[in-house]
Amino acid sequence: MIKTFKAETFIEKLFCDCCHHEMIATGKALISNPPQFPHECTGCGVVENITNFSFPNAIIREVEVHNKDFNKTKSHLDHSG
Ligand SMILES: [Zn+2]
Fold first, then answer.
1. How far is the CA of 14 from the centre of ligand 1 (A)?
2. What angle do CA 9, 12, 17 make, to 5 degrees?
3. Ligand 1 center to residue 65 CA distance, Å?
């Protein structure tokens, strides 16, 4: 059975801890487990290796339309598991 749900799209961006400019993936990947992706700051040029993700990163979240009490339902389910 296939069902369709409403969703929202977000973009996560990475910012430099030093100068607060955006950090962009260099397009390279380091051979490691898990993989790491070098990101270069557009301000100061520092390079930081990020595990598993490259930024900007698109994320999709389901929109809860019918059940506004989703968090309470979820915690209940967590207890049962
Ligand atoms: Zn920087």
1. 11
2. 165
3. 40
Query: Which amino acid appears at position 75 of this protein?
Result: S
Its pTM stands at 0.67
Residues 6+ apart with CB under 8 A from 13: 22, 55, 56
How many C-beta neighbours within 10 Å does residue 15 have? 14
| Ligand 1 centroid, distance to 47 Cα (angstroms) | 9
Report d(CA 68, CA 9) in Å as an integer. Answer: 19
Task: Write down the domain spans for the chain.
Answer: 7-63
pLDDT tens digits, 16-51? 999 999 999 999 999 999 999 999 999 999 999 999
Separation of alpha carbons 12 and 72, rounded Å: 27
State the distance from the centre of ligand 1 to the C-alpha of 37, rounded, in angstroms. 17
